[in-house]
Design a protein that fits this description.
2 strands, elongated, mainly alpha, binds zinc ion, 9 helices, about 55% helix
Length: about 180
Protein backbone atom coordinates (compact mmCIF):
# COMPACT_ATOMS: atom_id res chain seq x y z
CA UNK A 1 0.00 0.00 0.00
CA UNK A 2 1.36 3.41 -0.90
CA UNK A 3 1.76 6.02 1.81
CA UNK A 4 -0.92 8.22 0.27
CA UNK A 5 -3.35 5.27 0.30
CA UNK A 6 -2.50 4.58 3.91
CA UNK A 7 -3.09 8.20 4.81
CA UNK A 8 -6.34 8.23 2.91
CA UNK A 9 -7.69 5.14 4.67
CA UNK A 10 -6.63 6.48 8.08
CA UNK A 11 -8.43 9.73 7.38
CA UNK A 12 -11.44 7.75 6.26
CA UNK A 13 -11.40 5.77 9.53
CA UNK A 14 -11.27 9.05 11.49
CA UNK A 15 -14.28 10.42 9.64
CA UNK A 16 -16.23 7.16 10.05
CA UNK A 17 -15.57 7.09 13.78
CA UNK A 18 -16.45 10.79 14.16
CA UNK A 19 -19.73 10.18 12.37
CA UNK A 20 -20.50 7.21 14.58
CA UNK A 21 -19.73 9.29 17.70
CA UNK A 22 -21.91 12.15 16.40
CA UNK A 23 -24.82 9.77 15.79
CA UNK A 24 -24.49 8.62 19.41
CA UNK A 25 -24.71 12.25 20.58
CA UNK A 26 -21.03 12.67 21.58
CA UNK A 27 -19.78 16.16 22.33
CA UNK A 28 -17.26 17.92 20.06
CA UNK A 29 -14.35 17.79 22.52
CA UNK A 30 -14.90 14.03 22.98
CA UNK A 31 -14.84 13.47 19.20
CA UNK A 32 -11.73 15.65 18.88
CA UNK A 33 -9.95 13.63 21.60
CA UNK A 34 -10.77 10.27 19.99
CA UNK A 35 -10.31 11.11 16.30
CA UNK A 36 -7.88 14.11 16.40
CA UNK A 37 -10.12 15.85 13.84
CA UNK A 38 -10.37 19.62 14.15
CA UNK A 39 -13.51 21.24 15.58
CA UNK A 40 -14.14 22.74 12.16
CA UNK A 41 -14.15 19.35 10.41
CA UNK A 42 -16.38 17.90 13.14
CA UNK A 43 -18.82 20.79 12.73
CA UNK A 44 -18.91 20.35 8.94
CA UNK A 45 -19.37 16.61 9.32
CA UNK A 46 -22.27 17.23 11.65
CA UNK A 47 -24.07 19.71 9.41
CA UNK A 48 -23.51 17.66 6.21
CA UNK A 49 -24.37 14.19 7.47
CA UNK A 50 -26.12 14.30 10.84
CA UNK A 51 -28.28 17.43 10.84
CA UNK A 52 -29.09 16.94 7.14
CA UNK A 53 -30.37 13.44 7.98
CA UNK A 54 -32.32 14.67 11.03
CA UNK A 55 -29.89 12.93 13.38
CA UNK A 56 -29.50 13.67 17.09
CA UNK A 57 -28.97 17.30 18.17
CA UNK A 58 -25.48 18.47 19.10
CA UNK A 59 -24.82 18.31 22.80
CA UNK A 60 -22.96 21.09 24.51
CA UNK A 61 -21.51 21.64 27.94
CA UNK A 62 -19.40 19.44 30.14
CA UNK A 63 -19.15 15.69 29.84
CA UNK A 64 -20.12 13.55 32.89
CA UNK A 65 -17.57 13.46 35.70
CA UNK A 66 -19.21 11.73 38.69
CA UNK A 67 -18.62 8.00 39.05
CA UNK A 68 -21.44 7.80 41.59
CA UNK A 69 -23.79 7.92 38.56
CA UNK A 70 -22.78 4.31 37.87
CA UNK A 71 -22.99 2.91 41.38
CA UNK A 72 -25.88 4.79 43.03
CA UNK A 73 -28.98 2.62 43.08
CA UNK A 74 -29.68 -0.95 41.97
CA UNK A 75 -30.90 -0.01 38.50
CA UNK A 76 -27.84 2.13 37.71
CA UNK A 77 -25.57 -0.66 38.94
CA UNK A 78 -27.40 -3.17 36.77
CA UNK A 79 -27.10 -1.08 33.58
CA UNK A 80 -23.47 -0.29 34.37
CA UNK A 81 -22.65 -3.98 34.92
CA UNK A 82 -24.12 -4.94 31.54
CA UNK A 83 -22.29 -2.17 29.66
CA UNK A 84 -19.04 -2.96 31.50
CA UNK A 85 -19.47 -6.63 30.53
CA UNK A 86 -19.67 -5.66 26.85
CA UNK A 87 -16.53 -3.54 27.33
CA UNK A 88 -14.82 -6.55 28.87
CA UNK A 89 -15.92 -8.93 26.10
CA UNK A 90 -14.66 -6.54 23.42
CA UNK A 91 -11.38 -5.77 25.20
CA UNK A 92 -12.14 -2.07 25.53
CA UNK A 93 -10.56 -1.50 28.96
CA UNK A 94 -6.78 -2.13 29.29
CA UNK A 95 -5.81 -4.76 31.87
CA UNK A 96 -3.28 -2.47 33.54
CA UNK A 97 -4.37 0.75 35.24
CA UNK A 98 -3.70 3.99 33.34
CA UNK A 99 -3.06 7.03 35.54
CA UNK A 100 -3.46 9.41 32.59
CA UNK A 101 -6.35 7.55 30.93
CA UNK A 102 -7.95 10.71 29.52
CA UNK A 103 -4.93 11.22 27.25
CA UNK A 104 -3.57 7.71 26.71
CA UNK A 105 -6.82 5.80 26.19
CA UNK A 106 -8.20 7.34 22.96
CA UNK A 107 -7.45 5.52 19.71
CA UNK A 108 -9.47 4.83 16.58
CA UNK A 109 -9.54 1.07 17.23
CA UNK A 110 -10.69 1.46 20.83
CA UNK A 111 -13.24 4.10 19.80
CA UNK A 112 -14.76 1.62 17.33
CA UNK A 113 -14.99 -1.07 20.00
CA UNK A 114 -16.68 1.38 22.41
CA UNK A 115 -19.27 2.08 19.69
CA UNK A 116 -19.83 -1.67 19.21
CA UNK A 117 -20.26 -2.19 22.97
CA UNK A 118 -22.61 0.80 23.28
CA UNK A 119 -24.69 -0.39 20.31
CA UNK A 120 -25.06 -3.85 21.89
CA UNK A 121 -25.95 -2.20 25.19
CA UNK A 122 -28.66 0.03 23.71
CA UNK A 123 -30.10 -3.00 21.90
CA UNK A 124 -30.56 -4.59 25.35
CA UNK A 125 -31.63 -1.36 27.08
CA UNK A 126 -33.32 0.92 24.51
CA UNK A 127 -34.32 3.35 27.29
CA UNK A 128 -31.02 3.22 29.19
CA UNK A 129 -30.01 6.12 31.45
CA UNK A 130 -26.39 5.69 30.40
CA UNK A 131 -25.68 7.99 27.45
CA UNK A 132 -22.76 7.59 25.05
CA UNK A 133 -20.85 10.32 26.93
CA UNK A 134 -21.40 8.33 30.12
CA UNK A 135 -20.10 5.23 28.32
CA UNK A 136 -16.89 7.07 27.38
CA UNK A 137 -16.55 8.28 30.97
CA UNK A 138 -17.12 4.73 32.27
CA UNK A 139 -14.32 3.37 30.06
CA UNK A 140 -12.00 6.14 31.25
CA UNK A 141 -12.86 5.65 34.94
CA UNK A 142 -12.43 1.85 34.69
CA UNK A 143 -9.08 2.29 32.92
CA UNK A 144 -7.93 4.74 35.61
CA UNK A 145 -9.17 2.34 38.27
CA UNK A 146 -8.80 4.71 41.22
CA UNK A 147 -12.54 5.27 41.88
CA UNK A 148 -14.31 2.28 40.34
CA UNK A 149 -13.10 -1.10 39.15
CA UNK A 150 -14.32 -4.45 37.89
CA UNK A 151 -15.57 -6.88 40.51
CA UNK A 152 -17.66 -10.03 40.82
CA UNK A 153 -21.09 -10.55 42.36
CA UNK A 154 -20.47 -12.33 45.67
CA UNK A 155 -23.29 -14.82 44.95
CA UNK A 156 -23.18 -15.64 41.22
CA UNK A 157 -19.80 -14.14 40.14
CA UNK A 158 -21.48 -12.00 37.43
CA UNK A 159 -19.33 -9.06 36.44
CA UNK A 160 -20.19 -5.86 38.38
CA UNK A 161 -18.63 -2.42 38.72
CA UNK A 162 -17.51 -1.66 42.26
CA UNK A 163 -17.00 1.72 43.91
CA UNK A 164 -13.66 1.64 45.71
CA UNK A 165 -15.08 3.66 48.61
CA UNK A 166 -17.91 1.19 49.20
CA UNK A 167 -16.89 -1.55 51.59
CA UNK A 168 -20.20 -3.42 51.60
CA UNK A 169 -20.71 -6.74 49.85
CA UNK A 170 -21.40 -6.46 46.14
CA UNK A 171 -24.24 -8.40 44.62
CA UNK A 172 -25.77 -8.06 41.17
CA UNK A 173 -29.38 -6.89 40.83
CA UNK A 174 -30.71 -10.40 40.15
CA UNK A 175 -29.09 -11.88 43.27
CA UNK A 176 -29.98 -8.87 45.44
CA UNK A 177 -33.65 -9.29 44.50
CA UNK A 178 -33.61 -13.12 44.66
CA UNK A 179 -34.36 -13.38 40.95
CA UNK A 180 -31.44 -15.60 40.00
CA UNK A 181 -32.96 -19.01 39.17
CA UNK A 182 -29.86 -21.16 39.71
ZN1 LIG B 1 -25.34 -12.19 41.20
Amino acid sequence: MRISDDRYSRDRLRLDLALRFLNHGARTHTIRAWTTLSDDRIRKLYSSYVRAANGPPRHRGKSPQQVSFFTRGAHAQHETGILASFFSLLGVVPTTRLADAVHTLPSLARGERICQAFELFTAVFPAARISFEHAIFLVTALARGNEIHYGRCTDCTALVVVDRLTLQETRCLLCARGLRSC
